[in-house]
Amino acid sequence: MKTKAAVLYEMEKPKPYAESKPLVIEELDLDGPGPGEVLVEIGGAGLCHSDLSVINGSRPRVMPMALGHEAAGTVREVGAGVKVLQPGDHVVFSFVPVCGHCQPCQTGRAALCEPGYEANVAGTLLNGSRRFHNASGAAINHHQSVSGYSQFTVTMPESLVKIDPEVPLETAVLFGCAIMTGVGAVVNTAKVRPGASVAVFGLGGVGLSAVMGARAAGAGPIIAVDTLASKFDLARQCGATHTVDASKEDVVEAIRDLTHGGVEYAFEVVGSEKVLAQAYAATARGGETTSVGLPHPDRKLEIPAVSLTAEERVLRGSYMGSCIPERDIPRFIRMYQAGQLPVELLKSRFLALEDINEGFDALDRGEVVRQVIRFA
């Protein structure tokens, strides 16, 4: 069958992307689902900094690639042997396929699934296949086994979570990365306690989701940090009790003043080793810092090594919110339905696929939180 998709042929094209057009909108051939595979019609796909990191080359991937890792859609066809899903089911994609059998999966660390990681690096589905081809017949790689910037995509059940069909797909898409990663970092990775003080550095979609998660966990105070004051009103709506403008004041000093010595939990959601060092410094003795952003692989973090021991500090990473998608996506959706997670606040605007390059310009400038692509 034919599908219209946004394909990245070359990383590190110059900005603005509206002019250099790194994402090419073209009609691809999409093979039907083979045994153990599923055809999904995309109902919504989000523009995330992780996609931008592939475009700008700070998170290298094999080229060419049908981009997009945060998506939701409707199952249209299933291949032989697929029993857990059927046509008509509404699904959210997990950007790490979960094999369920490797050591991380068996110990509850699905975000670190080893075959899933290998497939994502290779640009294939979990079974090693590629289902997209361009007009010349060349294979197009899959992005995180999702490729959400395509009208239709083929994936496997290990990359899908069935959801309540009452949730609009244009909202459900946000649970595939922003909510799963941000809320998961708070409740799964850090396990924030009620009444604990929290600082969130970076107020994009994932950072604001972490703010929501902190409020849902009963934390307080919740300090939101960014260099763009335009994001502070939204942060307060998401649950922040205080805001700090990192472009105008010493962040560490401001947080220590607000909390009389530093926060108990800090979350770095920017992807900067410098901001991560600030987050670490802004915690109190015994504080815990969680790195959620994705810095360039070449960047190094420098912190006082003795503080880990002498002050019993904790520094940890959180990938995909330390989630088990099949458990956590429905759980977070129930929290949203109960009014605990104001997910709708994250949606800045809807885009047509043809406007995707302009959308990434807006994301790069920090003007938007989540833009969602709608396919006509």
Please state the structural category.
alpha/beta
Helix content: 25-40%
Mean pLDDT: 97
Which fold name is given in CATH as the topology of the largest domain? Quinone Oxidoreductase, Chain A, domain 1
- What is the top-level CATH class of the largest domain? Alpha Beta
Number of helices: 13
Q: Please give the largest β-sheet.
A: 7 strands, mixed
What is the CATH superfamily of the largest domain?
Medium-chain alcohol dehydrogenases, catalytic domain
Q: What is the alpha-carbon Rg in Å?
A: 20 Å
First-residue to last-residue Cα separation: 17 Å
Q: Any idea what the CATH architecture of the largest domain is?
A: Alpha-Beta Complex
Indicate the low-confidence ranges by residue numbers.
none
Shape: globular
Strand fraction equals 15-25%
Q: How many domains in all?
A: 2
Written description of the protein model:
Helix content is 28%, strand content 25%. It is α/β, with parallel strands linked by helices and 376 residues long. The protein folds into two domains: 2-176 and 342-373, Medium-chain alcohol dehydrogenases, catalytic domain (Quinone Oxidoreductase, Chain A, domain 1, Alpha-Beta Complex), CATH 3.90.180; 182-319, 3-Layer(aba) Sandwich (Rossmann fold). Strands 3, 5, 6, 9, 10, 17 and 18 form a seven-stranded mixed β-sheet that branches. A six-stranded parallel β-sheet has the order 13-12-11-14-15-16, with helices on both faces. A five-stranded mixed β-barrel has the order 1-2-7-8-4. β11 (198-201), α7 and β12 (222-226) form a beta-alpha-beta unit.
